[in-house]
Amino acid sequence: MTNDKGIFIKNIYYMLTYAFQVLKHTNYEKIASEEFDKVQDLFAAILAKGISQQLKQGLHKEYITKNENLSVLRGKLDIQGTIKNKIQHKPILDCEYDELSQNNIFNQILKTTALVLIKDTSVKAKCRAELKKTMLFFDTVDAVDPTTIRWNMLKFQRNNKNYEMLLNICFFVLDNLLQTTGKGNYRMEGFSDRHMARLFERFVLEYYKQHHTYLNEVKPAQVKWNVDGETDESMLKFLPVMQTDIMLRLKEDILIIDTKYYSHSMQNRYDNFTLHSNNLYQIFTYVKNQDTYNTGKVSGMLLYAKTQETITPDCEFRISGNRISVKTLDLNQDFKLIARQLDEIAKHQFAA
Fold first, then answer.
1. Could you give the strand order of the β-sheet that contains 62-70, starting from the edge strand earlier in sequence?
2. From CA 138, how far away is CA 41, in angstroms rounded?
3. Could you tell me the pTM of the whole model?
4. How many CB atoms lie under 10 A from the CB of residue 171?
5. What single DSSP character describes residue 24?
6. Of 102, 141, 248, 319, which is the most exposed, with the fewest CB atoms less than 10 Å away?
7. Each residue of 7-47: pLDDT tens digit?
């Protein structure tokens, strides 16, 4: 089955397995063999399996600050609260203390997302039932308002690393959430272009990391502005950061890849199809500033994800001594063919 962007849902799963290695573990094998009608079903199945696995290992706990009236002192005494109790003739102490608890933001996001998918009637009953089973163990965990979650503040360390993939799935779900009625019924939108762009970029990066280990570097990297030596250093802070999606390097040969995911990968004006000018200017700027000595060994590529368009870019130019290419990766085909296309890109760039 495909999603509303014309992409095999199975391929979305494969892309997720590259972006999040934990999905290649044995406990997710059954998901790989299933067919899903909608991406919501895929996300629900991954979350049900992932939460179930996390329950076996134990839910993540963090110290949270609690304030309670107690008969004996625990933690730190709140003087003002205790005085207030004395005035009201209550023989209790107002105490503030830290307690190791499951009711933290990581588990709250899991519960909130699970409840959203359980309420979404467009999700398969089987997937909703599996999620509902896991929620029996979240009775001490609060649900939260999705709009209050500060995703950029979440920090993953060794003791909560298992949550990284699950919370990324939660982000995809909650960020697409729509409250469709005033009765508390929820429905998730289709997987948006913005989220597909994020997943597409990470997938391509991780694919080259795993399958092209001969490369000296595979990483997102910043390109420094190739300014003249006479430029005042204090002025450089005004120049925008040039952050590449992916930089592949083998010795002196470099390929800078900018991944793009749009509903329309070409501009259309009066039936005249052209490349997105801003994208072309951007990749050209990256290449020319990276190729400090004008060796021509730095190349650039705009890599578009093909969806349902009939006209897609596939071209290569030599501009000012550097190779600039525009390619389209068809996500609506067998995954082996997607992998072959990515391998061919590396082979073309780094062939002896």
1. 62-70, 93-101, 76-77
2. 21
3. 0.78
4. 18
5. G
6. 319
7. 678 888 889 999 888 787 767 777 877 888 888 899 999 99
